[in-house]
Amino acid sequence: MTYSILIKNGTVIDGLGVHPRKADVGISGNYIKDVGDLSSASAEKTIDATGHIVAPGFIDLTNHSDTYATIFSNPSQDSMIRQGVTTILFGNCGESLAPITKKETLMDLNKWVAASAINLDWNSMSEYYDVLKDIHPGVNIASLVGHETLRRNTVVADEMAILLESAMVQGAWGLSSNFSFRDWGKTLAETIDLLKVVKSFGGLYKIHLRDEGKNFLPSVAALIDAVRTTGVRTVISHIKAIGRSSWGDFTKALRMIENAKGSGLEIYFDFFPYLRTGSMLMNLLPEWAREGNDEVILKRISDPSESAKILRDLKVITLHADRIFIASAKADKNIVGKTLLEIALKVSMPPEEVILEILKINSLNITFFGKTIAAKNLIFASRHKDSVLASDGAGYNIEFQRSGDLVHPRSYGAYPRFFSVVSPKAKLKPEEAIEKMTSHPAKILGLDDRGRLSKNHLADIVIFDENGFRDRATYKNPFRYPDGMKCVIVNGKIAFADDGDKKIMRNGVILKRNINA
């Protein structure tokens, strides 16, 4: 037998939680053809994987390369590929780039990236997929539909369901919502109607909870009620209990999810392997002050009477200004890399007032890192049978450091960090850690031909050093690729090899959901 690629002498972890084994992997075209003893086979290219793990490519269910626009500025998605991610899901946290009726509806994305950076050339989900195909991405791409995107592109609630149904027919994988800027109670009926559409297509629902702090448990309870009403398959994105006063609620939330699962509901969650969040600064505003679009929020914080109310609310909570580390700013790069306390001392203003001032100066487009997650809760999330790993980041290259902004290190190191640092602390076996990055997210999304090292599955494969796969990205210097990744194969072709010029070859495809599946 002659293969296009033959991977020899590696330790195969197939993604299904099965104990590692020594085996060879033969690839022909886009597919895995054989796994086993292939010592007598030949190939056009042979890769010696001695001392390396051979596993399925990693699948990232919470990725923001679309709304951060890095899929357009960096279609190779270097920082994703080089940590082993071969498939990413767009349209998270309530925002997607399709379907849209006009470019103006993307303006709320200015909180993450200048919407003008996106060369809009589509309206429907199908047209959007075609544009993504034409840029020849380095990774495989699927997309959800954003709840907020539907809201901005329709006039009445009934139109939202129609637009969502059309997008699902054209290959969208489901719906995402973000209730950190939206009152769940006010939009419950609308949300239930949309979830019924998703359920009718067998699609996925992903949710950014309304509150991950003091109202964390009520937010989880509200979601469970909605899932019980509709029966939709659901993933809580980047689950976490933020703030010391909420840390004890985390295990209670896990028990709530387990009880819901025990009653027949299908609820999962993903997490990232860090103790610092990477969030929009305006998330620190009280809930009532975050409601509405960017224009409404800016007007609110600029109004003297409204801003006075916001300041009163901010002073009630414990900000820990010394732990709020500014990561990016649209206009004032001088504050990047400084804590809120350092900025406040320099300008002789209370930290609460500084928040409002820098939000106004930067048109809300400002992010921060905050050390708000308990280490023990990260371990609990890692161990849980219904959890999967996700980056909650985006694909960058090293050149992005010229922007003057910082990014969360998860965009460069989430997967090696989980495998080499967090999963051993959680006492997970290597095969259990790999399962949370491969077959489990594939099953949740509905990918039946990826996420496994099995015969006749698509050849998305990673080969990495069994002992040297390590993240190098830090909060102060995130622009560092991990060590130990030997080779990444996407759709049967080498995308990255740790030799030669290490250039990323763009072999990704667009994954449209088959509505007849």
Supply the CATH superfamily name of the largest domain: Metal-dependent hydrolases
Integer tally of domains = 3
CATH architectural name of the largest domain: Alpha-Beta Barrel
Taking the alpha carbons of the first and last residues, their distance comes to 33 Å
What do the pLDDT scores average to?
Answer: 93
Q: Which value, in Å, is the CA radius of gyration?
A: 22 Å
- The CATH class name of the largest domain reads Alpha Beta
Number of strands: 20
Strand content: 15-25%
Can you describe what's shown?
The chain is an alpha/beta fold. The chain has three domains: 2-56 and 479-497, Urease, subunit C, domain 1; 58-275 and 373-448, Alpha-Beta Barrel (TIM Barrel); 281-367, no CATH class. It is 32% helix and 21% strand. It contains 17 helices and 20 strands. The protein has helices at residues 70-73, 78-81, 125-134, 147-152, 157-169, 184-200, 216-230, 250-262, 287-290, 294-302, 304-316, 340-347, 351-361, 375-383, 410-425, 430-435, 439-445, and strands at residues 2-12, 21-28, 31-36, 42-48, 52-56, 58-60, 85-90, 140-143, 145-146, 174-178, 204-208, 233-236, 267-271, 276-280, 324-329, 366-371, 387-389, 461-465, 485-490, 493-497. The strands form four sheets. Strands 1, 2, 3, 4, 5, 18, 19 and 20 form an eight-stranded mixed β-sheet that branches. Strands 9-10-11-12-13-17 form a six-stranded parallel β-sheet, sandwiched between helices. The chain is globular. 52% of the residues are buried. The mean pLDDT is 93. It comes from Candidatus Giovannonibacteria bacterium RIFCSPHIGHO2_02_43_13. It holds the Pfam family Amidohydro_3. Residues 45-177, 410-495 form the Amidohydrolase domain. One of its GO terms (molecular function) is hydrolase activity, acting on carbon-nitrogen (but not peptide) bonds, in linear amides. This is Amidohydrolase 3 domain-containing protein.
